[in-house]
Amino acid sequence: MLVAGIVSEYNPFHNGHAALVSETRKAGATHVAAVMSGNFVQRGEPAILSKWARTRQALENGVDLVVELPLPWALAGAEKFAYGGVALLDAMGIDLLSFGSECGRTEDLYKAERALGSGELREKIRSELKSGATFAKARQNAVAGLFDEETAELLSEPNNILGIEYLKALRRLNSGIEPFTVRRVGAAHDAQASEGFVASASQIRRMMRSGEDFSPLMPLSCAETARREIRAGNAPADLALIERAVLAKLRTMGPDRFAALPDISEGLENRVYAAVRRAGGLEEAYSLIKSKRYTHARIRRIILSAFLGLDASMSAGIPPYLRILGFNQRGTEILHSMKGRAALPVITNSSDIFSLDKNGKNMLELENRATDLYALCMPKIAPCGLDRTTGIISISSFD
């Protein structure tokens, strides 16, 4: 039994994701577990489909077990997102970490990871930041200056960056998990055009919102699940449906409260405070906050974190539990193997909250409240309590 783990958002699950699962099995994995973001994602927005719909998509297309990445790590930049996901896989006792990258070479990513650990580099990055560059660009320029252009070029691609963060997380955790990367093929990360039958998740989300036919770009069962959710009024989820509520909440907050948010630094709280009090909508607020220094994704995460009640201290360590979203028959074998050796409490139903410590209980309640707000982002508003009333997704067969 060789269990591979994938850190994912599956927003939504598409042909590129299916290809990674297939390559992972070709590499020798007998079982595949995914740590997946819940109802909100790294881009600072609601997932296009609920976590349960996306879990079903994954389980019907090669993934055997899906574990939820708690909100403070799901709604974070690459470093914390990767660290939270890898920490959960490590706690599960996973053997192999599989991920896609533009370069497709683990040794090159290791070289970049070592370069980023240089003390001299940190000083060079600070110097670049003073010139007004974003952190990502400052880091890339610093690596080019101190090491070589080839290593720096790796930092220009989003999946390479995430892969490097996975390697960094493995080192920080002193994990025995073996990394394995597959060269990413098809459309680029945020591309608005497809290459053959492989498109970026961004393009598929755009097509879902505009009513275009996205079926060729994802496995058949995934498209069926998505269409069923759309017909039921559960998708596509969109923060724009509640932007007045978001602004109302943010206008009650002072600079001190904004200063405690994740991703806030160097007085950015004052810029956010002024913007939300002036803006007539979320897009205008993002534009008022935006500068060369801060990416759109970071700004969206800050706004959403404020609305959902997050603060920077919540992701200070590792996630406090393993919350199971779904499994198939092979997934039950992973769960059985975890019994007695999982390094974190395993949550399979709402009553398991009583086995958690205070931090775990608070995290689970945060997740429950976030899902109640996600229900307002659906075209047809859903009731509160979905996290407590929706059962684990169980698929009885697999291929």
Structural write-up:
With 399 residues, the protein is of the alpha/beta class. It has three domains: 3-102 and 177-187 and 201-237 and 318-394, HUPs (Rossmann fold, 3-Layer(aba) Sandwich); 106-156, no CATH class; 239-308. It is built from 19 helices and ten strands. The chain has helices at residues 15-26, 51-59, 71-74, 78-92, 106-116, 119-130, 135-146, 149-154, 158-172, 201-210, 220-231, 243-251, 255-259, 268-278, 282-289, 296-308, 329-338, 358-374, 386-389, and strands at residues 3-8, 31-37, 40-41, 45-46, 65-69, 96-101, 178-183, 322-327, 346-347, 393-394. The strands form two sheets. Strands 1, 2, 5, 6, 7, 8, 9 and 10 form an eight-stranded mixed sheet that branches. A two-stranded antiparallel sheet has the order 3-4. The chain is globular.
How would you briefly describe this protein structure?
Helix content is 49%, strand content 11%. It is α/β, with parallel strands linked by helices and 399 residues long.
Features:
single chain, 399 residues, alpha/beta, Rossmann fold, 3 domains, eight-stranded mixed sheet, two-stranded antiparallel ribbon, 19 helices, 49% helix, globular
CATH architecture of the largest domain: 3-Layer(aba) Sandwich
Write down the domain tally: 3
CATH T-level fold name of the largest domain: Rossmann fold
- Radius of gyration, whole Å: 20 Å
Give me the count of strands. 10
Main pleated-sheet profile: 8 strands, mixed
- CA-to-CA gap between the ends? 17 Å
Shape: globular
Backbone structural class? alpha/beta
What is the CATH class designation of the largest domain? Alpha Beta
**Subunit arrangement of the protein:** single chain
Order of helices and strands: EHEEEHEHHEHHHHHEHHHHHHHEHEHHE
What's the tally of helices?
A: 19
Give the name of the CATH superfamily of the largest domain. Answer: HUPs
Low-confidence stretches: none
What is the averaged pLDDT score? Answer: 94
Share of β-strand residues: 5-15%
> Helicity level, as a percent range?
40-55%
